[in-house]
Amino acid sequence: xxxxxxxxxxxxxxxxxxxxxxxxxxxxxxxxxxxxxxxxxxxxxxxxxxxxxxxxxxxxxxxxxxxxxxxxxxxxxxxxxxxxxxxxxxxxxxxxxxxxxxxxxxxxxxxxxxxxxxxxxxxxxxxxxxxxxxxxxxxxxxxxxxxxxxxxxxxxxxxxxxxxxxxxxxxxxxxxxxxxxxxxxxxxxxxxxxxxxxxxxxxxxxxxxxxxxxxxxxxxxxxxxxxxxxxxxxxxxxxxxxxxxxxxxxxxxxxxxxxxxxxxxxxxxxxxxxxxxxxxxxxxxxxxxxxxxxxxxxxxx
Length: 301
What we know:
Helix 8 links the parallel strand 5 and strand 6. This protein has helices at 24-30, 33-40, 57-61, 70-89, 104-112, 144-149, 154-157, 181-190, 197-203, 205-217, 250-263, 283-295; strands at residues 4-10, 43-49, 93-98, 118-123, 171-176, 193-196, 222-228, 266-272. By secondary structure, the chain is of the alpha/beta class.
């Protein structure tokens, strides 16, 4: 079944400390993302890039107390919220291209208001469940999921004019292998279904995705996929800012995307943390669009 997919570029680097991730949306376009999806049979509308605040290099490079670049993240999140909300109101599938993972604060705000019980699959090496108090760095790209659940700085939790976009019991974490102590404590307290890389090794990706779909399908009215390319092993995705050895393989991730497509439950997606300035000949961007091919129904036969 063909979809009408709206590409929304989210060129933000404010959630972390490595420039280049703001060029991720254009890198993905450059290596053929739109053509890849169109060749499957979908209609693709490229909305271009959401406006980002001006980058003050002196401030960006400085040591900042508290939440780094908070005002810029708030401004960008509100701009992205508006764009994603417009796409969902038109009944189109929003595919948001990052940019660092702090963008999910705005993207999911624009999606969740249209669903009573939005499910979220967080395919990532990291939980992104910190608050300022538990964060070792103050980088907001390590906090978006916690903010979406409704905890943390009020300006972040209230993007879009409402709070509690996602319930903890409607979240599944897949690919975890780098969790801060505060995140581990919160995951246990909140009872968030979590699959670490050890779980994937033991169960296999097929079973992990089957269990995820079974867990979410009856208690949610739509599921959002937030795919961080650092979920994959850095041998395969070198062009990302927070690498952790021992990640998912390209083939495992293809299987995950194929199974999510076949579920017919995914209503929106983020593809984040592609950084062409530290990539190897666009390897990470090319791999990412291969995954999007499977996600949107590309078949070998």
